[in-house]
Design goal:
Helix content: 25-40%
Radius of gyration: 17 Å
Shape: globular
CATH topology: TIM Barrel
Oligomer: single chain
Distance between the termini: 12 Å
Strand order of the largest sheet: 1-2-3-4-5-6-7
Order of helices and strands: EHEHEEHEHEHEH
Strand content: 15-25%
Number of domains: 1
Number of strands: 7
Largest sheet: 7 strands, parallel
CATH architecture: Alpha-Beta Barrel
Number of helices: 6
Length: 213
């Protein structure tokens, strides 16, 4: 049986973006994680190739991570672009940083969306595909989901079970589980109370952890 560790949160934002809570500082995140007895957290602030705050962000995290006993990953969440590349400075695309690739722009054309996703999955610098789900304008066939899953397996990617958006869909999870794809939990926290809070996706966690007949 596959078990998901609810003491691990692999998707936490902070106040280096313009839409998180003002008190979502690196220091406060560390304190909240300690209060909740979390074992692993990942800082994954939104990034663009043009972002000019990244060095300050990294310095601040590294200052505090040396003072804690739990595992702290340092990285970014980068959006998947129309051509399948990710919007992250090249200097952070290496094994030193933890990178989530996610869609943050709607691509209503199914082929464009699917092709961009496959390219992101094939990107050796991407660790995780975040809050994965098709757009409302289209759906994937069972064969397309399976093909996607096989790409995820062959490129050794992890699929995030996202608490903010309650994703991926159950039909994705069923196929991915059959293919023995790796899952982990991400709160996608934009406020302190959301850190390590997976109440909204208990049904997804149960679906993943239950064995099939």
């Amino acid at each position: 049986m596959l078990l998901l560790n609810t003491k691990e949160d692999y998707h936490i934002h902070c106040n280096y973006n313009d839409h998180s809570s003002f008190d979502l500082t690196v220091d406060n995140i560390i304190k909240k994680a300690k209060e909740k007895n979390l074992q692993t957290i990942a800082f994954t602030e939104h990034v663009r190739k043009s972002s000019d705050w990244t060095e300050k962000y990294l310095e601040e995290i590294n200052f505090f991570k040396g003072k804690v006993s739990f595992n702290t990953l340092v990285g970014f969440e980068a959006k998947i672009l129309a051509d399948g590349n990710i919007d992250c400075p090249d200097s952070y695309l290496n094994d030193k940083y933890f990178v989530i690739a996610s869609f943050h722009t709607k691509y209503k054309d199914k082929k464009q969306w699917y092709d961009a996703l496959i390219k992101a999955v094939q990107n050796e610098n991407v660790n995780v595909i975040g809050h994965l789900a098709p757009e409302p304008e289209f759906s994937l066939t069972s064969q397309e989901i399976k093909n996607l899953g096989e790409e995820i397996v062959s490129n050794d990617k992890t699929i995030e079970v996202n608490a903010k958006y309650s994703r991926p869909p159950l039909e994705f999870i069923k196929t991915f589980k059959e293919l023995e794809i790796k899952f982990h939990l991400g709160s996608d926290a934009h406020s302190l109370d959301e850190i390590g809070n997976f109440d909204r996706i208990k049904h997804l966690i149960k679906f993943i952890e239950d064995t099939y007949e």
